[in-house]
Amino acid sequence: MKITFAKICWGLLLVLVLFLIRPVGFILYAYLKDKDAQTTVKTGLAQDASRLNETRVDTVVKVLPGIAAATRQISQLIKQAKAEGKKISIAGAQHSMGGHTIYPDGIILDMKTFHGMELDSSKRILKVGAGALWSEVIPYLDRYGKSVSVMQSNNSFSVGGSISVNCHGWQCDAPPISSTVVSFHLMNAEGEVLNCSRTENEALFSLVLGGYGLFGVILDVNLKVVDNKNYVVQHYEIRSEDYLREFQKLVKHQGNVGMAYGRINVNPDHFMEEAILSTYTVDSEQPEKLVNSTNYSFLRRAVFRGSANSAYGKNLRWKMEKMSGSLIDGKKFSRNRLQNEGVEVFQNTDPDYTDILHEYFIPGESVAMFIKALKGIIPNSKVDLLNVTLRNVRKDEDTYLPYANGEVFGFVMLFNQKKGAQAEKEMKELTGKLIDIAISLKGTYYLPYRLHASKEQLDQAYPAAKSFFLLKKKYDPDLLFRNQFYEVYGR
Ligand SMILES: Cc1cc2nc3c(=O)[nH]c(=O)nc-3n(C[C@H](O)[C@H](O)[C@H](O)COP(=O)(O)OP(=O)(O)OC[C@H]3O[C@@H](n4cnc5c(N)ncnc54)[C@H](O)[C@@H]3O)c2cc1C
User: Fold this and answer.
1) Which domain holds residue 344?
2) What SUPFAM superfamilies does UniProt report for this protein, alphabetically (predicted)?
3) Domain count of the chain?
């Protein structure tokens, strides 16, 4: 048989089709079976991002826009709740996962409608209603060439919820968000409005930041903002055990890296042996104005969700992520564009499963040891780990319950959990083990997620927890502001 050039071309095409047929078919299947998010909660019930906390509540009260109206409304509500013996919990976007915004038969104060904002460009300070979401703040700041200084890796959260958990993000070499709070107005349990800053009502300032809504209602916040800048992206494939050394070399010693994060592989092939470190170096060009762009989010979502409960999907995703990293190397993105993505791009919408986050804050010198421990524990437990990112966080000097007691690396771990008692039990056991390891390495864990830690673990990771809850009783003797976090650890 004569082998012609045409036959070779057809042969190569066939090989290419055979090579692509499985991954393309897999992604298409993941895309087609993906469900729409169920966002509505039945009247009289409340729920949070865990989708495991459906609870009957008394009422949900939407806060009126405008400071004068909101102040009158909330102080009236406080009087009425006290008279009727009801409790108040405070909610932003409800992305905490342990009922931190919910109290059974309580009143939920929904802050999202209290979202006005005003920028003082000369002082670089944004005055913002606590209910404003970052997805509202970022486009507003973009108009003035400014950007949020510290926030989470997504834009779906409220300012009040973010400072009440003292969030952090992938802005590198930065402490948590509390470092960017200049002051805020707080309505306390007596219905009085107090200005809290580092020099006025200082004790309340440090209790309310990372205080999980237990000391009063944060009304408006003065936040430091920064210039919106352009960044050049670069991805580096490294060995996970070298993470700290590579981070020092590629981020710390460069001096001009504005944002950075790491990802560790969770696919079964060489589980947690590799990492991708992504750096965003400040560029001299002026950033473009924010535009609505989808960034191939439907494809990223299909690849991500396809990896749930699938070893093939996880291997495919890791390969595609490495490939896409090298494709965008050298491209430029504005800070506002990088920070302006919602959680819905990756959110679990499967009614039988839910996504659960954990986060452990580990000192740099113990990062490799923590990874080694994870490699031993995770494959032997019946959990589906979807993602691990690493961000560095500098020491928190401001809050009463700090999770960053020095410079630490936050391991953000996303699990796909089946709904039901058995999976919940397994997750609780795993969480207990991981918290013990974090504590043994002089690290801590993050408090806005599931309330699986024991009281002893809370006290070990947060030695100030006991006095925190005693101070709660001092500032709120009737225990008006209540939520599940307080019920589990404060009572
Ligand atoms: C998908 C996902 C990604 C995440 N990524 C990150 C991340 O990158 N970095 C990070 O640090 N965290 C992250 N988190 C955690 C997140 O920062 C917290 O859950 C945060 O609380 C979310 O803000 P929220 O508006 O949803 O707060 P909510 O869940 O509504 O509230 C959280 C706490 O704040 C209190 N609170 C809210 N508003 C007020 C107010 N006005 N006055 C007083 N108390 C108030 C509530 O009572 C509650 O105790 C993530 C969570 C999810 C689900």
Assistant:
1) 230-453
2) FAD-binding/transporter-associated domain-like, FAD-linked oxidases, C-terminal domain
3) 2
